[in-house]
Design a protein that fits this description.
heterodimer; A: 351 residues; alpha/beta; Rossmann fold; four-stranded parallel beta sheet; 15 helices; B: eight-stranded mixed beta sheet; 22% strand; globular
């Protein structure tokens, strides 16, 4: 049986086979909480499988039964359109049952605890819970109290691993291996879960990463010299640069991050205008990057603030690809986490 | 007439510079005699064999949250004092951040009444600095002093308004009450969940900068100099505050300080990592505490300050929290560590690491806090923190070599919130004698 064929057949395992630890030889993750514990081969499997998923997605009728009888609950404690729809589609293309629940933490504070909620969802035989939460670490708490797979769809300022995987996949599709490539992230690094997960993914894949932003929006301890020597590897190795022109010099990829207007209200920035003056990704600034550079943005964009409208829609921009690829990557991830993929297939994908 | 004789222990009584094998005899709740073979001279007594063990004065904790009235699901005076006795404390100061807060004579009296009825050991009440602990108007310090409070503090809520703090200090001098301050500037640490640094960055949690403590300590020192008041800095957690307190002491400011066992031994890495692995993170809300656990360079400086006496006392800042309030999202989890029952064992790590010697450690649990707040000048508390003949009959029998595993389920405290669950500690209280009576005994206690 070829790996690709396996996606088209019904593969419904017997009940009770979900285990909290996948046997060795399989993709070694039961949850997807962040990329900090993913090694290069783990990520490569996702990227290769995402190619096949992208092919399914581009079919006239994009439906396969690979996850038939598999139940995914999207548990969103924070408003989201794109990520939620992306996960819903990913599940549905693979034939899974997908239920989306939007709630807010205030009702949770008063009523049902997070632990209760995930236990209840498991008792109803949910196989995977995709979780978006405004507080860092919430999916980790959930994962400790359920044997359903927990997928972090964004937790506070901490992590957004599927966004990072789709960013990696988008770069992979456009330029292949990113090892040694210079990738620059510009913007609100301190409050960005996308940045945190991207930094793990990009550095694990061997990229040279430069983070750039105003000093009030950079996170403490990111410089290796800010950490004790024993913790050298406790954060991704990145270069920090507060001057955008220097940061962009010879970049292969430039990624602008969304700037939340509350950063100005919180006193971290004098004004959005000042931010745009010093940190907006513009055509003029991109002229310093490599001629064939790529421009990315995790969305939703504030055109005219962190990114100029003309470059966002320009020829170097692969922002829309990111969105389509998001579905493919999430399909790959759901399939891997479901445990329905054959070990031989994983082996084949990783070679 | 009741007599207790503790035989043949190594008596360490830093107040009297005593360290040697001796018997201690307590008659009717007062220390009667301390010396070699004194126990043999007593005809009829309850006898404890302390051979191979250490005998010390009962420990004194300046900072304990008992949660009664208002949050009895977290702790009661009965459960908290039982936990204290188990941890070797015979005198504890009850923080005033209850509901209602302790800001009136009636509130103080209610605590004293409940303590009289249910406490296993001595409870000294603390009063609020501000009315209703709201940080706006002064609480009636004279009324509180008259009712028996031994110091004023707004508990975990630092007094933010510098004018209010100035006036509280000025006013307190009339009644001789120390002003104890939780040393974090509320504005600088607003929304912070842990120490600001690389671990918070890794976890995506908002940080509480070390400078948030230093600025508050610096301000309060300046106000203490202005007013001549007695400032006590609770929960010293940064190298920066140690330097400020050290310098202020050297120029004669009336300032005392205390640090907790956790701030002396644990770092912010505890929140995120199991030992020596940085690959996998967790969000351990049992290590969420304010001020937060800091860095290695901080705990080193606090330990030095403890050794030098710049930090006068080890206090637990015992903060019992129910699992319902801890096993939730990290941002929502109530900060605090249930610390009474692990205080000595955890602090013994300082002795293991040769940061302080055993006698100094015991000093900081006994006469250190007593002298910091002049508690032995309170009526009936003569000799507190020492084994002075005629003084209070509070003592401990300790096995400094006993290894034990922390099991929160066995705590006497209702608060099982400890980051030490499953860890091995060395050093255990075998018996606690309060006012001449056995308030706690461990299974391994041997009677004669």
């Amino acid at each position: 049986m070829t790996a690709k064929a396996n996606l088209d057949i019904q593969a419904i395992p017997e009940e009770g086979t979900t285990s909290s630890h996948l046997p060795s030889g399989r993709w070694p993750h039961h949850d997807m909480l962040d990329l900090d514990n993913c090694r290069r081969p783990d990520i490569e499997v996702v990227l290769t499988l995402a190619d096949r998923m992208r092919e399914i997605l581009d079919r006239r009728i994009p439906r396969v039964p690979a996850l038939r009888g598999y139940t995914i609950v999207n548990l969103f404690y924070e408003p989201s359109t794109r990520t939620r729809v992306s996960f819903e589609l990913a599940g549905k293309v693979l034939g899974a049952d997908v239920i989306s629940v939007s709630t807010n933490t205030s009702s949770v504070v008063k009523g049902e605890s997070l632990i209760d909620t995930v236990r209840t969802l498991r008792a109803m035989r949910s196989d995977a819970v995709v979780m978006r939460h405004p507080m860092a670490g919430a999916p980790y708490l959930a994962a400790q109290h359920t044997d359903a797979s927990i997928i972090n769809a964004g937790d506070g300022a901490h992590a957004h691993p599927t966004q990072a995987l789709l960013d990696l996949y988008t770069m992979h599709r456009s330029i292949g291996d990113i090892a040694g490539k210079k990738i620059v992230m510009v913007g609100d690094i301190a409050h960005s879960r996308v940045a945190r997960s991207d930094l793990w993914g990009l550095t694990t894949m061997g990229a040279h990463v430069v983070v750039c932003g105003p000093p009030t929006l950079l996170a403490l301890g990111m410089r290796v010299s800010d950490r004790p020597s024993h913790a050298e590897n406790a954060l991704p190795p990145v270069t920090i640069e507060t001057n955008i022109d220097q940061a962009i010099e010879d970049a292969d990829v430039v990624m602008a991050l969304r700037l939340q207007s509350e950063r100005q209200e919180g006193g971290l920035l004098p004004s959005l205008h000042e931010y745009a003056t010093h940190y907006q990704v513009t055509a003029e600034r991109l002229a310093r990057a490599k001629p064939d550079h790529l421009l990315m943005h995790p969305g939703p964009k504030n055109e005219g603030i962190e990114i100029a409208a003309d470059v966002a829609g320009g020829s170097h921009s692969i922002i829309e690809d990111q969105v389509t690829n998001g579905v493919a990557v999430r399909m790959a991830l759901l399939y891997l986490l479901s445990g329905r993929i054959e070990p031989e297939e994983v082996t084949e994908l990783s070679t | 007439m009741s007599t207790v004789a503790i035989h043949n222990g190594r008596v360490i009584d830093p107040a009297l510079s005593r360290d040697g094998i001796a018997d201690v005899v307590i008659v009717d709740g007062r220390v009667a005699r301390v010396g070699p073979n004194e126990g043999e001279m007593v005809v009829e007594a309850d006898r404890i064999d302390a051979t191979g063990l250490i005998v010390t004065p009962g420990f004194v904790d300046l900072q304990v949250h008992l949660r009664e009235p208002g949050a009895e699901h977290q702790e009661t005076i009965a459960s908290g004092t039982k936990a204290a006795a188990r941890g070797g404390f015979t005198t504890i100061c009850a923080m005033p951040g209850t509901d209602p807060p302790i800001d009136s004579r009636a509130a103080v009296e209610s605590v004293l009444r409940e303590a009289e009825a249910s406490a296993a050991i001595r409870v000294l009440p603390l009063g609020c600095i501000s009315a209703n602990r709201a940080g706006e108007l002064l609480a009636p310090a004279g009324e509180l002093a008259g009712a028996g409070v031994v110091a004023l503090t707004d508990d975990g809520q630092a007094v933010a308004d510098p004018n209010l703090m100035r006036h509280a200090m000025q006013y307190s001098t009339r009644f001789g009450l120390p002003i104890a301050q939780h040393p974090e500037d509320p504005a600088l640490v607003a929304g912070g969940q842990m120490h600001e640094g690389w671990v918070a960055t890794r976890l995506g949690l908002r940080g509480r900068p070390a400078s948030g403590e230093a600025t508050m300590v610096a301000r309060d020192i300046a106000l203490a100099e202005l007013t001549g008041a007695h400032l006590h800095v609770c929960d010293v957690s940064t190298a920066g505050s140690v330097a400020l307190i050290r310098a202020a002491r050297e120029r004669g400011v009336h300032i005392t300080a205390s640090a907790t066992p956790h701030h002396l031994t644990l770092t912010h890495e505890r929140v995120a990592f199991a030992e020596s692995s940085y690959e996998q993170i967790h969000y351990d809300s049992s290590a969420k505490v304010f001020p937060p656990l800091r860095e290695e360079s901080d705990i080193t400086e606090i330990a030095k300050a403890l050794r030098d006496g710049v930090v006068d006392a080890i206090t637990t800042d015992h903060t019992p929290v129910s699992s319902m309030e801890k096993d939730i999202e990290f941002d929502l989890a109530i900060p605090g560590i249930s610390g009474l029952e692990t205080a000595f064992g955890l602090s013994m790590r300082l002795v293991e690491r040769q940061q302080v010697d055993l006698a100094t450690l015991i000093e900081r649990f006994t006469i250190g806090p007593v002298r910091a707040w002049a508690l032995d000048r309170q009526p009936g508390l003569e000799g507190l923190g020492s084994l002075t003949p005629g003084g209070v009959g509070d003592l401990l029998v300790i096995d400094p070599a006993a290894e034990w595993t922390v099991d929160p389920e066995t705590f006497s405290s209702l608060g099982r919130n400890t980051p030490l669950a499953g860890e091995t500690l060395t050093g255990q209280v075998i018996a606690t004698i309060f006012d001449g009576e056995l308030a706690y005994k461990n299974k391994s206690l041997t009677a004669l």
